[in-house]
Design a protein that fits this description.
Elements lengths: L14 H13 L18 H13 L5 H10 L1 H6 L8 H8 L4 H18 L10 E10 L8 E3 L2 E11 L4 E9 L7 H5 L5 E4 L6 H9 L3 E6 L5 E6 L8 E9 L11 E8 L2 E7 L6 H9 L2 H13 L10 H26 L5 H23 L3 E3 L8 E3 L1
Parallel strand pairs: 1-5, 5-6
Antiparallel strand pairs: 1-3, 2-3, 3-4, 6-10, 7-8, 8-9, 9-10, 11-12
């Protein structure tokens, strides 16, 4: 019987990995091509870069050197992740630190839009909510650009998190001391509402965001001075004890020019003061929307702990941004996969299950290839068969 040898591309065995990577494979043809900066051809295409970085975040790789060793020694990684001709250590680290950032950013933005169309929408009654905060990433002392304090280097990611769909949508990178407030206008689009903690309180910004048509729900300091313009009714017996339209700050010093709504509520003997320009929501909804801000803290902890954010591949700002984007892309891929397969949000349980399935598929391929089994597909047949 005539047959075709298929020495390694038996994708049928890699159902989990192939389906997880499908959104990337569908998006890659529409991206700006990555070209070499010289006459030499690229040793690692942008597709290779994405595959390698997503693979790094999924598996237990503790460093770039560990990753390169796996890419060299694992049959699965050689066939489905690494460049066809392999990659040298120097070329790998140079490329990660100098090429592909424009394409990675474009891929992240396109995957976010794809996921936002597929994933279910929650909290519709609250409108378009974007949780905004910054998070520190530990750096090494040789990362001179990651200024934080004497004897400590840290970078900071500024993230906008789409609460309605449960996925990250925007990211910026600065040194550890980078101010977070200027990124609010870059993260929000007109009509969206940013939900923020006390650090983002700046009365001038409250005026600017309203002028830009960008809404906010921001906790402020209890000691902030307020000039009441009108008082709204408050239901007795609830958590809300204050609801009014005010001007915040000291006249002639830092007082807001535009009116701001101020909601006060108490939870477990702690008073919360929330400034907002959302007059369409009830005071209880304002309090609930701010409570949802904790979802971003949960995401940060989950992302850092389970997707290896602390294991840095590159020490340059360029390379670190590549890794941060790849980590966020991996999370979006997991969100799409968990919804399609289980109708569930991302969870540690499902991440472990996905990784175990991928490793089992990898082990099967390695065992098959080590045993000398050949794969063939008879002409006209849809099945793939094996023979020794």
């Amino acid at each position: 019987m005539p047959y075709h040898f298929m020495p390694g591309r038996m994708k049928k065995n890699h159902k989990t990995y192939s389906k997880l990577m499908l959104p990337i494979n569908e998006t890659l043809p529409n991206l700006i091509p990555l070209k070499s900066n010289c006459n030499r051809p690229l040793q690692m295409s942008f597709e290779d870069q994405v595959n390698i970085l997503v693979y790094f975040h999924l598996e237990e790789h503790h460093s770039g050197r560990h990753l390169l060793q796996v890419l060299k020694e694992s049959h699965f990684a050689r066939q489905y992740v690494a460049p066809e001709k392999g990659i040298q250590k120097s070329s790998f680290f140079e490329d990660i630190s100098s090429r592909g950032l424009e394409q990675m950013m474009e891929l992240f933005e396109k995957l976010y839009l794809k996921a936002a169309k597929q994933l279910p929408r929650g909290h519709e009654e609250l409108g378009e909510l974007t949780l905004i905060d910054g998070s520190l990433i530990d750096a090494v002392l040789s990362m001179y650009w990651a200024d934080y304090r004497d004897g400590a280097k840290k970078a900071k990611v500024h993230v906008g998190f789409d609460l309605n769909h449960g996925i990250p949508k925007k990211v910026f990178l600065t040194d550890g001391k980078g101010d977070e407030r200027p990124f609010v206008s870059k993260i929000l689009s007109p009509g969206e509402t940013g939900v923020m903690d006390r650090y983002y309180q700046r009365h001038k910004c409250f005026d600017e965001w309203q002028a830009e048509g960008k809404h906010f729900i921001c906790r402020i300091k209890a000691s902030t001075k307020k000039h009441e313009i009108r008082i709204n009714n408050v239901q007795s017996g609830g958590i809300v004890f204050y609801d009014a339209v005010v001007l915040l700050g000291t006249p002639g010093v830092n007082q807001t020019e535009k009116e701001v709504r101020l909601v006060g509520y108490q939870v477990e003997n702690t008073d919360y003061w929330i400034a907002t320009d959302r007059h369409d929501l009830s005071a209880e909804q304002i309090a609930f929307a701010y409570k949802l801000r904790w979802n971003l803290e949960i995401f940060f902890g989950w992302w850092k702990r389970h997707l290896k954010v602390y294991h840095l591949i590159s020490r340059s700002k360029y390379g670190l941004m590549m890794q941060m984007l790849a980590g966020l892309i991996t999370y979006i891929l997991l969100a799409i996969y968990c919804h399609d397969e289980y109708l569930e949000p991302v969870s540690v349980k499902r991440l472990r299950e996905i990784c175990i399935n991928i490793r089992n598929e990898m082990s099967l391929e390695d065992i098959v290839n080590d045993s000398g089994v050949w794969f063939y597909q008879p002409p006209g047949s849809k099945g793939i068969y094996a023979t020794s």
